Amino acid sequence: MDIKKLREIFEDNYEELKYETGRSITLNMKEFAWQQVKLYYEKLGKVAKNMTEAEVKLILPEQVTPKGKKYTIEGIVDIVEKEDKITMYDIKTHNVEEVRNDKDLYRGQLNMYAYMWKNLKGTEINNMAVIATAPSSELRQATGIGDEIAVDIIDDWNPIVELEIDNNEVEKQIRCFGETVDKIEEGEFKAPSLSKLKEVKKGQKAPFGTAVCRHCDARHSCNSYSQYINKVKLDEEILEVAESEDLVEQDEWKDAFMK
Ligand code: SF4
């Protein structure tokens, strides 16, 4: 399939989603999404073609928190089965460096999904990986001017981060989810201050507000994030690392409040 055809499919898909959800997105956001789709296709077309099951919904119901509250854990993964080996992929719109620098976080989640898969299908996951689709800054620069992608840059880009299988992670994850549910249920949470959002954690390039908050479902009702993304009080240093994802986020933020 050539890029033109891919774009047509992307546009059709976008129109369908718009119709189904009744929501549209800004032009910036749409182009950002298109870049990710295009790069995913260019780089991972082979993986995508080999998927034996796409968007498998995993559910672990009837979990009970340490304080006796019931909750359900859910996740969505893609599966490749080849030569009696099963590989589980979790596609995330995160930056690959963030995933590499915070492997423990992702390892816990994927081991949880492997456990849920076994409960559902009765087979073991042999390998697992995150596919981090957000393009690196080099890729963004290379693709920003059109559909042509510099071959050597895309060759160097590896969005697949393999993670180790560790059954000990499951119990730890369930306990951690349970404790978090208890805290949420009891209203025991508050967003960190703007200064925390501006901090760059060791091993990461982007500040907390970009690396973490950008993926948080609560961000549109979070005051700290509102200050961060709208660049209130942001200093020069942070402005340098708050790149195009943040500009897209600014659009999304405005969009969310204009509805
Ligand atoms: S956006 Fe989410 S992760 Fe970021 S400070 Fe607010 S609540 Fe916390």
UniProtKB/TrEMBL annotation:
One of its GO terms (molecular function) is hydrolase activity. It holds the Pfam family PDDEXK_1. InterPro entries: PDDEXK-like_dom_sf (IPR011604), PDDEXK_AddAB-type (IPR038726). GO terms for biological process: DNA repair. Residues 38-223 form the PD-(D/E)XK endonuclease-like domain. Keywords: ATP-binding, DNA damage, DNA repair, DNA-binding, Helicase, Hydrolase, Nucleotide-binding. Gene3D superfamilies: 3.90.320.10. This is PD-(D/E)XK endonuclease-like domain-containing protein.
